[in-house]
Amino acid sequence: MPAGENSTPPDTLASLRRKSRPKVEKSRPTQPDLFSTHEPAPAPESTKSVSLSEAKNPRIPAPAIAVPIEQERRIYSVRALVADIRQHTESAYSNVWVEGEISNCRPAASGHIYFTLKDGEAQLPIVLFRRQAQLLRFRPQDGLAVLVRGRISVYESRGQLQLIAETMEPRGAGALQLAFEQLKRRLADEGLFDADRKRSLPPFPHCIGVVTSPTGAVIRDIVTVVRRRHARLNLLIYPALMQGANSPQTVIDGIAWFNAHPDRVDLIVIARGGGSIEDLAGFNDESLARAIAASELPIVSAIGHETDFTIADFVADLRAPTPSAAAELITAAQHRIEDRVQSLTTRLQRAISYSLMQSRQRYARLSADSVLIRLRDNLYRREQHLDDLAYRADSALHRRFRSHVARLAGLTARLQQQAPTARLALADRRLDRAREALIRTGSHLLDTRRTRLASAATRLHALSPLAVLNRGYALIYSEQGSLLHNAAEARPGQRISARLATGTLTATVLEIESK
Question: Which residues lie in Polar residues bias regions (predicted)?
């Protein structure tokens, strides 16, 4: 302002403080209550302000200097201040009704339920303790519009305003959930969710197009899984927004770019981490759903966690529970070959074990009485049968071995046609190791079986009565030809015959001793 003009001096920091300072009573030097509703009184007359603009030199404006009356300051600790606010809030809002839409519903293991009540303008954390939660007749879930009664409080540990719910009544589905269901029903009626329009993924892709945020944890998880399961698979990333109003358009741009360059990728993956229904709202966009349905390349949807479902999941050719699971599904064909070889090995081992079990059952049916009665004929017949079983087992094993070798050779040929050179070399080494293991296992089983057969033949021969007679024993028969088991069955002067290992003796009983 030019010097010499008469005008009101501008407000200074001190003058503003003086205008807003409440009246200080001498009889009550302490600070008034935090939530006092009294209007601030004007400053006392004893409070003076000396402005440098009223000095002798009016050309030099200067800020005014306020000289307030000294008053006692009340200093709160953080805990005391938050506690004071909580007490006032609980007394002022002890019984309120609030209507809104549930979001981020999180049932805890303790039985308490935590969620956020929101509308288009604001949101309020809600706590429903276990005792009140047990009285509910419905299950709170995201997107449900409810009417909640409770009291407003402050959670002191975080200084957060929250409503402690006493009762809750449903008011129908929220706006986001209702829009989701309506769009889902309309697209389903158009056939965009039909299984016959979904395409299968290529078994051995060379490159995958990933539409995701290049700085998030999702792309790092995908890279980790792919490098562990299929190191030669390439990833081409299209950076896109995974949240917000512009998210659907950036994802659509990524799908369009990959379809415009089909020679670069074999399929497309849309990946995003978990979040609330609001965070995933961009993937419930109708234009994005139609872009996925119109894509020439197969699309895998890997959005959120296993419990999260979006419209993009229903339209995509394949829905993966998580981004990491999507990477595993894409590289699954690489591991199926190794699983097939292991399955063939297991089937061969089971067949050999079953054949051995049948042989043991046949041997168990041989009783000691039948061996004693028909020893000579049955012994030769059993030995012949054992030889036949050994030959058949050996032939069957070799036939199975040749069959599996032929199948392994066929798999090797198919791998040579479909896989790169490095993967073929790796598969060949695995097949060689499996073949060597099969040969060692077959040889070991044959040796074990021959040993058991020889041992069984030896035991059968040891049970032969002829072998007992060779050790010096004899079979004593009466004149009628019956076998004598006790000396009391004979009488003095009776003629008896003794069957030895070679030949028969005839004798007369002279004396009987019973001991």
Answer: 1-10
Tokens of 86: 């909580």
Alpha-carbon span 211 to 242, nearest angstrom: 9
The CATH number of whichever domain residue 91 belongs to comes to 2.40.50.140
Give how far the C-alpha of residue 442 lies from the chain's centroid of Cα atoms, to the nearest Å.
39
Instruction: Give CA–CA dist 313/303, Å, rounded.
Output: 8
- Three-state SS string over 129-196 comes to CHHHHCCCCCCCCCCEEEEEEEEEEEECCCCEEEEEEEEEEEEEECHHHHHHHHHHHHHHHCCCCCHH
C-beta of residue 255 within 8 angstroms of C-beta of residue 269: no
Distances (CA, A) of 147 to 111, 172, 174: 21, 10, 12
pLDDT interval class at 317 (50, 70, 90): very high
Enter the DSSP assignment of 449.
H
List the one residue out of 147, 38, 37, 164 whose CA is nearest residue 90.
Answer: 164
* pLDDT, tens digit (0-9, with 9 covering 90-100), for 122-131: 899 999 999 9
**Are 112 and 211 found together in one domain?**
no
Residues pairing with 497 in the sheet: 477, 506
Q: Domain containing 211: what range?
A: 200-338
What amino acid is encoded at 275 in this protein? G
Closest CA to 408 of 346, 336, 344, 352: 344
pLDDT tens string 388-417:
888 888 888 888 888 888 988 888 888 677
Task: Please give the biggest Cα pair distance in the chain.
Answer: 174
* Distance separating alpha carbons of residues 293 and 290, to the nearest angstrom: 5
Let me know: does 146 contact 117? Beta carbons within 8 Å.
yes
Give the domain CATH number at 332.
3.40.50.2300
- Give phi and psi for 384, each to the nearest 5: -65, -40
Count of domains in the chain?
Answer: 3
**Cβ neighbours for 170, distance < 8 A, ≥ 6 positions apart:** 138, 144, 145, 146, 147
What radius of gyration do the chain's Cα atoms show? Answer: 47
Here the tokens at position 327 are 């990477």
Tell me the C-alpha distance between 409 and 28, whole Å: 100
Instruction: Classify 499 as helix, strand or coil.
Output: strand
One domain, residues 208 and 147: no
Say yes or no: 161 and 104 in one domain.
yes
Which strands form 234-239's sheet, in the order they lie side by side? 234-239, 207-212, 267-272, 299-303, 318-319
Pairing of strands 207-212, 65-67: unpaired
Which backbone phi and psi does 40 adopt, to 5 degrees? -65, 135
Q: Are 127 and 98 in contact (CB under 8 A)?
A: no
Shared domain check, 313 and 216: yes
Backbone torsions φ then ψ of 91, nearest 5 degrees: -75, -35
Bridging pattern class, strands 160-173 and 234-239: unpaired
